[in-house]
Write a structure and sequence with these properties.
Helix content is 50%, strand content 17%. The chain is an alpha/beta fold and 250 residues long. The chain has one domain: 2-enoyl-CoA Hydratase, Chain A, domain 1 (Alpha-Beta Complex).
Length: 250
């Protein structure tokens, strides 16, 4: 696999949305836009009762934002637009009327942690460690903070944010509530995801829809909130500190 993609496949009333980018599933704007559109389309598809969000490849679920695209940001408006990419995907997941199961097969960083947190139920392998590295490069996990804090609590979110160079284990993420369960192998993960998704897809679709609404009650302001957070990151990424740090990580 050498070309980025976002696909939607349907099997037994389950919609499988898969995203991929050859650079460790780091996400440029075009992939984030396609992912948002796929989630919105799946939410309206009558044949789909439940969604699974997954990524291609074996090693990394999502490495966060594309460093190359971040480095190309030249003004605050471009920065806001870029960081709105993850905001738009999280809001699409939040407002999607279908329950979303996350399948996290490997490490996830930054915005990828936000995607995992925005699922309604997330399963992972023991290799799915997580990190919020944003402070170490001169910005912060502003856009994804509401989703991550909602799932694991402010104390755990703060710990990850401040300890920005540490990968926290999949078991730690399970203890904090990000993952519902952790499996030894990707094969075992896939079996569990399929079993759960197909079981849920046999339930009353209207009950699933109403339950999803209950889960996300109190987040109605996120459309504006996440855009405001994107604006903060968009301004910070223009600093000399961040620009020089990103060059070292490139």
């Amino acid at each position: 696999m050498t070309e980025p993609y976002v696909t939607l496949n349907i099997k037994n009333n389950v919609g499988y949305i898969e995203f991929f980018h050859p650079n460790r599933n780091s996400m440029p704007s075009v992939v984030l836009t396609k992912l948002k559109e796929a989630i919105e389309a799946a939410g309206e598809h009558t044949e789909i009762h439940v969604l699974v969000l997954q990524s291609g490849g074996d090693r990394t679920f999502c490495a966060g934002a594309s460093f190359n695209e971040v480095m190309a940001v030249s003004n605050a408006e471009e920065g806001k637009t870029f960081f709105s990419g993850f905001a738009n995907v999280i809001n699409a997941m939040r407002t999607c009327p279908k329950l979303i199961i996350g399948r996290v097969q490997g490490k996830t960083v930054g915005g990828g942690v936000g995607l995992a947190a925005a699922t309604d139920y997330c399963l992972a392998t023991k290799f799915a460690s997580i990190r919020l590295s944003e402070l170490s490069i001169g910005i912060g996990p502003f856009v994804i903070e509401p989703a991550v804090t909602r799932k694991i609590g402010l104390a755990a979110m703060s710990q990850m944010t401040i300890d920005a160079e540490t990968f926290f284990s999949a078991e730690w993420a399970k203890e904090k509530g990000l993952y519902a369960d952790v499996f030894e192998t990707t094969k075992a993960l896939d079996e569990a995801v399929t079993e759960l998704a197909e079981k849920l897809s046999s339930y009353n679709p209207e009950a699933l829809k109403q339950m999803k609404s209950v889960f996300w009650n109190g987040t109605q302001n996120w459309g504006l909130l996440l855009t405001e957070r994107a604006e903060i990151s968009g301004a910070l990424v223009l600093s000399e500190f961040t620009k020089s740090t990103l060059k070292r990580f490139r």
